[in-house]
């Protein structure tokens, strides 16, 4: 048996799981102060949909650094948000912090944000990153919109990486267009107040 594999049970849906060192994924139920402190959480990404705003508010904003991702619905465009979350998580981990990404159930959109982070950080395919996150939190189930956007994000982050490494000549025309579109979207998102 794989030493990293932990036998899954239904109660674990209400807990957070550490996906990679310092990055946790979980549901609203795991945002109790004692659970957050015990896990050493310092930073939190709260994913809320328009209909969840009344009960999906950041818990203990005076104790943790937060970003709140507000989505109109489960089919919202998330690709520009992937980069914003990556910067937040990277900064937290660089400072020795630990990050919890959570949503109401911690299975769809919040899981997709973690998959995108793992994919880009570890230079993985969307399928391999999805498999890694699923192995740690076995109840995830990104919807078709999320899965499609993760698949679309793979060539985008590769193009961005090629651009940052000075290999823009290696980018295909499609990658270049996607890169330019992402840069434009990131610029728009950075002007939004998500904290």
From TrEMBL:
An annotated GO BP: negative regulation of SCF-dependent proteasomal ubiquitin-dependent catabolic process
All residue ranges annotated as the Tyrosine-protein phosphatase domain in the record: 15-159
GO molecular function terms attached to this record: F-box domain binding
Pfam families registered for this protein in UniProt: DSPc (PF00782)
Superkingdom to which the source organism belongs: Eukaryota
Coiled-coil region: none
Entry protein name: Tyrosine-protein phosphatase domain-containing protein
Higher taxonomy: Eukaryota, Metazoa, Ecdysozoa, Arthropoda, Chelicerata
């Amino acid at each position: 048996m794989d030493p990293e594999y932990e036998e899954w049970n239904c109660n674990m849906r209400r807990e957070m799981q550490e996906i990679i060192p310092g990055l946790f994924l979980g549901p609203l139920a795991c945002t109790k102060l004692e659970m957050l402190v015990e896990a050493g959480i310092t930073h939190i990404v709260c994913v809320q949909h328009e209909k969840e705003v009344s009960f999906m508010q950041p818990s203990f904003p005076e104790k943790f650094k937060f970003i709140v991702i507000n989505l109109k619905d489960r089919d919202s465009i998330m690709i520009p948000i992937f980069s914003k979350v990556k910067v937040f998580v990277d900064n937290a981990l660089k400072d020795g912090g630990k990050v919890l990404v959570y949503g109401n159930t911690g299975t769809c959109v919040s899981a997709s944000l973690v998959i995108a982070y793992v994919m880009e950080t570890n230079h993985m395919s969307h399928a391999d990153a999805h498999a890694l996150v699923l192995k740690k939190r076995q109840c995830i189930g990104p919807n078709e919109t999320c899965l499609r956007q993760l698949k679309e994000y793979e060539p985008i982050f590769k193009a961005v990486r090629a651009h940052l490494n000075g290999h823009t000549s290696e980018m295909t025309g499609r990658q270049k267009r996607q890169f330019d579109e992402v840069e434009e979207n990131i610029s728009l998102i950075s002007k939004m107040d998500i904290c």
